[in-house]
Amino acid sequence: MRSRYTAYYQQNADYLLATWHRSHRSSQLRQALSESFSDTQWQGLRIIACEAGANDNEAYVTFWARYVEKDRSDAIHERSRFVREDQRWYYIDGTAPQVGRNDRCPCGSEKKYKKCCGQ
């Protein structure tokens, strides 16, 4: 996960494509990545949890990544699914975890979500 975040930060589409599982790579992926690079400045990554999957070749990483896009601050909160093939990990997909209003904010502020990023 950290290496993929670094690739986004460095605008390294080749690495991102190489670590995206082939079953989830679209023909427009490189173009979409390249277009997103010009408007996005990544500002930080916080790994919240790493969990084993159903077998040794599946894992999940929950993270919070901050960025600025077109002068607007935002964040991605995702639970990413990875699979291992030939001793390499590949990104499959991700889902947005549900955060309750009274849960601690995933950004790491220690505030309740409703008083922080959930406003």
Structure description:
This protein is of the alpha+beta class and 119 residues long. 20% of the residues lie in helices and 39% in strands. The chain is globular. It starts with a helix and ends in a 24-residue tail after the last strand. The mean pLDDT is 93.
What is this entry, summarized?
The protein is of the alpha+beta class. 20% of the residues lie in helices and 39% in strands. Strands 1-2-3-4 form a four-stranded antiparallel sheet, covered by helices on one side.
Strand order of the largest sheet: 1-2-3-4
H-E string:
HHHEEEE
Largest sheet, strands/sense/barrel:
4 strands, antiparallel
Average pLDDT, all residues: 93
- State the low-pLDDT regions, or none: none
How many runs of DSSP E, i.e. beta strands? Answer: 4
Global geometry? globular
Q: Note the total helix count.
A: 3
Strand content: 35-45%
Strands, helices and their partners?
Elements: H1 2-9, H2 13-19, H3 29-37, E1 40-52, E2 58-69, E3 72-85, E4 88-95
Antiparallel strand pairs: 1-2, 2-3, 3-4
Relevant terms:
single chain, 119 residues, alpha+beta, four-stranded antiparallel beta sheet
